[in-house]
Amino acid sequence: AETPRLLAAIMVSLKLQKRLAASVLKCGKRKIWLDPNEVQEISLANSRQNIRKLEKDGYVIRKPTKIHSRSRVHRRQEAKAKGRHSG
Predict the structure, then answer these.
(1) With left for phi above 0 and alpha for psi between -120 and 50, is residue 24 left, alpha or beta?
(2) Three-state secondary structure along the chain?
(3) CA–CA separation, 56 vs 60, rounded Å?
């Protein structure tokens, strides 16, 4: 009798919460982190106000932007200045 309820708790959809969080934190959905240990708590949030509270509590976080390194480009341009990669 315990397993079906446990499965239901695991498979909660947090699509709405993620969308609201992205809007509240002014970023894309892929930059939103929802605490996997607090799924039940997060699933109850159905308003922007609730999402702001979750952010304050640290259950919803805006992930840092990824670094896009130009080191390979610089290395290639250096080689091209020497006349490499020209056919």
Answers:
(1) alpha
(2) CHHHHHHHHHCCCCHHHHHHHHHHCCCCHHHEEECHHHHHHHHCCCCHHHHHHHHHHCCEEECCCCCCCCHHHHHHHHHHHCCCCCC
(3) 8
With CA atoms as reference, report the closest residue to 70 among 61, 78, 58, 81.
78
- Residue range 54-72, pLDDT digits in tens: 999 999 999 999 999 999 9
Q: Which residues have CB under 8 Å from 5's CB, separation 6+?
A: none
CA angle 59, 64, 68 (to 5 degrees): 155
**Cα 12 from Cα 16, distance rounded (Å):** 11
